[in-house]
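Minutes, project check-in
Item: structure for the 188-residue chain
Input as provided by the requester:
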Amino acid sequence: MVCRGTLSSLCALVLWVGGCPKRQGPARVVYVPTPSPPAAATAPTTSPRVLVIEEPEPLEAEPASPPAAQTSEPKPPAKHKPPVRTETATPPDETPETSLPPAEVPALEQRASAVQESALRLQIQRLQEDVHQRLGRLNEARLSANEHKTLEDARTFLVQSTRALESGDLQRGFNLARKASLLVASLK
């Protein structure tokens, strides 16, 4: 029994020191630019521990030009640019027969009439008064920490609603007053 334990300990020590033969050295990463087209058929010979990353081939084949026209400097890769719209200008005295008369642009209208604005303003003021009354009736001593946070948020929305109403942003004022009202309603 002692001999078996010693033998297995010795084998474990040998495996631990020797390790796996494939993982004895760090792997290297080598970046290789794309070879010229004739040399693309030959693959570089590397050891199994070297990882070769080649640059991908360009998507569009460049037009072949005669060898005499090539320069010693390599051309940078062509960048894709969005097409530029060019319109042909016609002289002012000549108008094309197919041109249409300019479309009439409708006049801008107010978002809401004066009557609608005053009704919305009155609705906002009533909503704000209702929220103030409900805030006054709340017993803050019975509220939890989360409910205190909700109460502070409602007060913040109410103040922002008042500012929006004063600046003339009625829709924003209404939305903020409504949010304050919903938050106060959730506290009951």
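Outcome recorded: The radius of gyration is 40 Å.
No further action items on this chain.
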